[in-house]
Write a structure and sequence with these properties.
Elements (H helix, E strand, L loop, with lengths): L7 H21 L7 H5 L3 H15 L3 H32 L1
C-alpha cells in the first residue's frame, strides 16, 4: 500500500510501532552497559515503568517487566500511534 493512500491511524501506528521495533532491535543485539542508554531514551522505558506499577496488582516480579517490556512496547506504541493518527485524521477531515 502506498504511504499517501494509507489512513492516518495506520500511518501513526506504523510509525509508533516501527520506532519501538527499532529500539527493540538495538536493545536485543547490544550486550554492553552502554545499552542501558537505549532503555532510558527509548519508548521501552515508559512500558517498563507501567509494568512495574502494575506488578503488585498482577503479582509478578520486576524481572517480568525487564524481560517482556521490550516485546510489549511494540504493540503498545502501535496502539498509541494509531490513536494519535486517528485524532490527526479526524482534525484534518474537518
Amino acid at each position: 500500500m502506498n504511504n499517501k493512500k494509507m489512513p492516518y491511524w495506520l500511518k501513526g501506528g506504523v510509525i509508533g510501532g516501527g520506532v519501538a521495533f527499532v529500539f527493540y532491535l538495538l536493545v536485543s543485539f547490544c550486550f554492553d552497559y552502554f545499552c542501558l542508554v537505549f532503555y532510558i531514551v527509548s519508548p521501552i522505558y515508559p512500558v517498563i515503568f507501567l509494568l512495574n506499577l502494575l506488578a503488585p496488582v498482577f503479582g509478578y516480579s520486576w524481572i517480568f517487566a525487564e524481560v517482556y517490556a521490550p516485546i510489549l512496547s511494540i504493540p503498545i506504541w502501535f496502539i498509541i500511534g494509531s490513536l494519535i493518527g486517528a485524532i490527526v485524521g479526524y482534525i484534518k477531515k474537518k
